[in-house]
Amino acid sequence: MGRFGSGLYHGCLNAPKKKLHPFFTYLRNLSMLYNSMGTLTQKKIQDYYNEFKSIPVTFNKEIIQVTGLQPKQTILKCGSDFFPCFVYSTTFEEAKIVSSDKSDIIKKLKEANNLVNIKFTFKTPSSGEQVAFLVAARVMGFTKYNGSTDMLMFTLQFSHRPPDDLIGIVGKILEANIVSSRRKNEYISITPESLRKLSLAKNIGITIEGVPRRCILRDISFSGVRFVMLGISKFLADKQACIKFDFDDPIESFTIDGRFVNVENVADRSDMVTVTMAYNEPVPMTYKVRLSDYLGKTRMPSPKNQQTGTADTVAEYTVAADIVAPDIDVADTIAADTVLADNIAAYPDVDGK
User: Fold this and answer.
1) Which range marks the domain in which residue 145 is found?
2) pTM over 0.90
3) Domain count of the chain?
4) Same structural domain for residues 158 and 200?
5) CA triple 41-171-146, angle to 5 deg
6) What is the pLDDT of residues 90-140, one digit of tens each?
7) Residue 299 shares a structural domain with residue 328
8) To which H or E segment does residue 152 belong?
9) Could you tell me if residue 89 is inside a domain?
10) DSSP string for 199-263
11) Measured between alpha carbons, how far is 323 from 96 in angstroms, rounded to an integer?
12) What is the Cα–Cα distance from 344 to 340, expressed in whole angstroms?
């Protein structure tokens, strides 16, 4: 970036939001997009696009939380009109959205020759900043949504390859799902270095049938965990438990339920045991993403005694593809009083042609 470009970039970041010209507001949002992509390289983005472009991600509650999608700030722009909508699912080629049949959306679509722009808004987990962008598309058809009398589901075919930020956000979810299946039983040894790279707090809480206990984490995987604790093996075998993980950058905590599948005495310590705990399904997607990110940055040899998945195709691991409908209140999300935030007029129009 040249001297002028660099100054313009930093000026946009530091300028007061309320007094910015729409063009500079657009530039500032571009800078937020670059920040939201983190360490993803152009090669990684291209790999995501090539591998996953036709695989759908359905936006249920968990996927919305992991991606940072802001459902109430998703807008369908048709000509000069704006319609609140909900993104049901997306690939890198098309999206399915839900909108109200009570508006004059069908009439406006006909007037616009079915050409639209969909505004996606995401909140970056690490910084809390919102990023937004428009994707040009053509409406290919619609149908009643889930038997509703006043909700329609539209199929939108993207006019061009979507922005890199959408590919990066969605691609990360798809990659984590695939890696978690292929490397399900591959353990990561817990060391000061791996704790730092995972942004994982070393103090781990374990609750065994309602009783909190202390433990020392040894290994972690997509399917389970190993730890050392005080106890007698015969009294701990096959116990139900839950383990709590605390992560930084961004700060988040979650608990995973599971069962003790192996308990062995520690050598020379009759009062200590090494426990292998298998997680109950489903495992949180955020947890999968964190481990997938770590494995992507770290080359780890696969021990001979560890099994990995034998997936033949990426399509075997679509995210939430079996969900009939998102587990959120769609009607509330696209209610008529939804705030059309962030002033779409601040973004240059994207022709759907």
Assistant:
1) 37-180+317-346
2) no
3) 2
4) no
5) 155
6) 999 999 999 998 878 999 999 999 999 999 999 987 677 888 999 999 999
7) no
8) strand 151-158
9) yes
10) TB-S-EEEEETTEEEEEEEEEE-SSEEEEEEES-HHHHTT-EEEEEEEETTTTEEEEEEEEEEEE
11) 14
12) 8
**CA–CA separation, 227 vs 190, rounded Å?**
10
**pLDDT tens-digit readout, 257-281:** 999 999 999 988 888 999 999 999 9
Radius of gyration of the CA atoms of the chain, in A: 23
Residues 141 and 192 reside in one and the same domain:
no
Contact 86/326 with Cβ under 8 angstroms?
Answer: yes
Residue 291 has a pLDDT of 94
3-state secondary structure of 134: strand
45 in the same domain as 122:
yes
Mean pLDDT across 201-219? 91
Sequence-ordered alpha helix ranges (H) in 112-215: 164-182, 192-198
Pair (199, 135) in one structural domain: no
Are 147 and 237 found together in one domain?
A: no
Torsional sign, CA 306, 312, 313, 315: negative
User: What does the alpha-carbon distance between residue 49 and residue 61 come to, in Å, rounded to a whole number?
Assistant: 24
Statement to judge: residues 220 and 301 lie in one domain: yes
Q: How far is CA 90 from CA 56, 200, 205, 318, in A?
A: 5, 31, 37, 11
In this structure, what DSSP letter does residue 72 have? G
Same domain for 220 and 266?
yes
Please answer whether residues 206 and 226 qualify as being in contact, where contact means their C-beta atoms are separated by less than 8 angstroms.
Answer: no
| Tens of pLDDT, residues 227-253 | 999 999 989 999 999 999 999 888 888
Dihedral angle, C-alpha 138, 139, 140, 146, nearest 10 °: 150
